[in-house]
Amino acid sequence: MPNKNRLLVMLLAIVLVLPATLLAVPRPAASAPADSDVYTVQPGDSLWKISLKYQVGLSEIISANPQFANPDLIYPGDKVTVPLYTATKSVEEEVVRLVNVERAQNGLKPLTANWQLARVARYKSEDMRDKGYFSHTSPTYGSPFDMMKSFNISYSAAGENIAAGQTTAQAVMDSWMNSPGHRQNILSPNYSEIGVGYCTGGSYRYYWTQMFINP
User: Fold this and answer.
1) How far from 65 is each of 28, 40, 48, 73, 150, CA to CA, in Å?
2) Is residue 31 part of a domain?
3) What's the pTM?
4) Domain that holds residue 114
5) Residue 161 and residue 210: Cα distance in Å, rounded?
6) C-alpha to C-alpha distance for 35 and 19, rounded to whole angstroms
7) Which residues on adjacent β-strands are paired with residue 39?
């Protein structure tokens, strides 16, 4: 097992979003979370509306509900299992809080947490763990910018920080803030939203991704 933490930064990039065909990227099946909620379908509901209500990805809800042969056909009274990822999201939210503490200390506006961007960042961390690499360029999704676009994340500016091996939110933030490139992304006035993705397992045991955008 590697015995030191790793850091990598995607330096600030201003990217103009041009009309393009989105990449056909496979969505990995979500691992079964330790916690979930059971939602009773109401008139007018769809799995998409339920995913927005809970701020959980549609594909994760579909994976958790194999009883629906056609996910587009649900009826009032049906029971839908919604994975919550409470423990994972708690760690991710702590990183966001620490980012905004640093920004406040430097006279910058706080970043708004974007749950859909956090979902993409979580997929990136899981991809690094599962595919055994540590890089901004994913063998599954390509660059961070391609990955965001493939998940329908629109932006005029975007950046990414990644890290591996740090055991806590505070530890990874300390590492990033002590690295000029990572610090630049965290304290950039060009971003307004953030998504943090965290997972455990793999060679480094802990994987971290920060994604930053300005819509």
Assistant:
1) 15, 13, 13, 12, 24
2) no
3) 0.81
4) 86-214
5) 5
6) 39
7) 80
In angstroms, what CA-CA distances link 84 with 42, 53, 55, 60, 73? 20, 12, 9, 10, 22
Distance separating alpha carbons of residues 210 and 215, to the nearest angstrom: 16
Q: Does residue 56 contact residue 84 with C-beta atoms inside 8 Å?
A: yes
In a domain, 19, yes or no: no
Longest Cα pair distance anywhere in the chain, in angstroms? 54
pLDDT tens digit at each of 215 positions of the chain: 444 455 554 433 333 322 222 223 333 333 344 589 999 999 999 999 999 999 999 999 999 999 999 999 999 999 999 999 999 999 999 999 999 999 999 999 999 999 999 999 999 999 999 999 999 999 999 999 999 999 999 999 999 999 999 999 999 999 999 999 999 999 999 999 999 999 999 999 999 999 999 99
Burial 26-39 (b: 16+ CB within 10 A, else e): eeeebeebeebeeb
* Length in residues, the chain: 215
Query: What CATH number corresponds to the domain at position 97?
Result: 3.40.33.10
Other beta carbons within 10 angstroms of residue 119's beta carbon come to 22
